[in-house]
Structure formats: C-alpha cells, structure tokens
C-alpha cells in the first residue's frame, strides 16, 4: 500500500486535480485571457486554478511538513544520543530518518508540483523528486513490515532465534537498497508532459507526470501491479503479526492484573519482603534506563538457581518485570504506529481502487468532495508525521528524554550568555 500510492495516484491526479473543477476558476481572471499573451494567460489560468482548488491541500501539506520535521528531528536526536544500541533504537532511527526526509523534501515538492502544475518544466527535478517520493514511501512500508515480524518473534516466539542489533541494521539497509532499486524505475517513467486545458485548447501547459510513451506500456502497468502486490503483502503481514502480538499482550495484561490481586490479598504476611522489593525498585529507577531484554519472557534458569537470598531474588524479579514491561511497551508502541500509518493510507487506496474499477463513481465523489478530495488522495503523508506523536504519547521514556534534552539545551545557552551565576 505504501509503495504503490505514488504511481497510482498519478493516474488520479492527471484527470481530477488539474482538470476536474475548472468551472470554479475565477471568471473575472479568465475573462481577460484574450487580452494577454499565451504564456501570461497560462500563468493566470494556473494561478486561478490553484487559488480556487488547491490552497487547502497546500496548507495541509505545509502543516504536516512542519509537524513531521519537528517530531522526527526530536526522534532522531533523542534516540541517537540517549538510547543504547538495540533493535528498538535501530528501527526508530531508520523510520524517523525516512519520515524526516519525506517531511523536509517530499511534502514541499508536492506543494510545488501542485502550485505549478501547468508550467513545470525542469525534467531533472521532476525525475529526482518523484523517485524520492517513491523511495520514502516504499522504504517506510518495508520498515513497518520488518518491525512487525521482529515484534512478533520477540513477543510470540521469545525462545526462538531473534534479530541481533547488527542483524537489524543489515535488514534495514537491505530494505533501503531494495527501495532505491524500485524507486529508480519511477525516474524513468516520469517526465515533463505537455497538457492541453479543457475549454482552452489554444493553451498548452507542461506537468510532471508519467510520460505518454510509458503510460500504456507493459513496463508501467507491470510496475504498478508489482508495487500494489508488495504493498498488499506488507499490509496483510502487519495485520497478521500484530493480531498475534495484541492477543499475547492482552493475555499478559489479564494475567498481571490477576496476579496483582492475588498478591495484594496476602501482602500483610510479606511486609519485610515488600519493603525490600520497594527499595530495590527505587535503586533500579535511579540507576539509569534499561532497554528491553533480548527475549520477551526469557528466564535464565542457572541464574534463578544461583539466587538464594530474598533480597537478590526480589532484585532479579523486579529487574525482569521492568524488562517485560519495557518490551510490552515497545511492542504496543510499534503496533499503534503501524496502525496509524496504514489508517493514513486507507483513504488514498480506497479512492484509487474506486478510480480503477469505476471512474464515473470516482468523478462523482470528486465533485461532491471538492478540494477535500485532493487532501484524501494525499492522506498517505500522515504516516510520516504520526510516528513521533505515537512515541510521545506511548513511550514515557521518550517524553522524559525530550524534557532532559531541552533542560540541557537551556542550561547550555544560559551558561554561554552568562545567565547562570
């Protein structure tokens, strides 16, 4: 789904974003078309179409670009500086880097393409940024699929073979290389294409879209079908794996609540042990932040046998409990992030399917929704913004590290401007 959206949405955009609502163009501006030069008239028509139809979607992209840049910059800074090497850290850094690229480059380019959709003439810029758009969407989809499989093995197969941090980096690099290879094809099929405007046959503009030489070829159709197939496979894979992860997490939450109720009923007989556990928990909380364990529920039997004193036993139990809680929190965080990402892709995919099956129905939807339809077609950009928001709400440590980062930055600035005595 993530990979196919750009190429397929081009088919929608060619007929709707530019030509569909031309009747809404400001009549006073177009009424002067006979009194201006051809190039000036084209610019006037282009600007009028932009004002009447495309300002909402450009504002939408601008807001997403700002939020995505800020959020993903925080994710990259915090996870690279404050987190120890782990699979969790590797996946977040890769995903945040791709999303940051989309926020800094892809979204502004999309806005530029919308604004100058009749006078776009630089072929190198067209090919480069279209390929970049395909790369960020394809790589993001691959990373979400890899994370889903890794979380499934971590939670559902804790005693099986797990990805090491080095292996996680290698898998992410392979995903990026494959995404580059797939996106490079878009650099071939896209280019500057002349377009005539309905009701203004004397005007011919140029836009960045799939070239006519490739539009009806087997290369373009096969490329579209292949990307759609990959997107569907990744989407189904995420649903399948996270359904098992969610079930395991739900069962463990129920088990934890029942165990807590049982232990609270007999807590009066274990006051001294409870005091020891509390002090150990405080020591662990002040000694630093612990990353997730190598497996979700792994217990080293030899270590358990070696532990004989009540204090050491409670310390091991508390440490393992913190590891389990952290691993569950990470799994839940990635589950929410993946779900939010694909929710952003759904409107785009539904509209594209309707367009491919019955274009008349799509035209009716486009006419009824107006400018909002252009926003829905580009709803996939939400996936590049929601991830750091999910980290902020779900990961307590991420919030704490962000606050600490700003405190250090504040004291550093104050020290350099001599505000601190």
From TrEMBL:
Keywords: G-protein coupled receptor, Membrane, Receptor, Transducer, Transmembrane, Transmembrane helix. It is found in: Membrane. Belongs to the G-protein coupled receptor 1 family. One of its GO terms (molecular function) is G protein-coupled receptor activity. It is a multi-pass membrane protein. Residues 260-273 have a biased composition (Low complexity). It comes from the Eukaryota. The chain crosses the membrane at residues 57-79, 91-109, 129-149, 170-193, 223-250, 330-354, 374-394. Pfam families: 7tm_1. Residues 260-292 are annotated as: Disordered. This is Cholecystokinin receptor. Its main location: membrane.
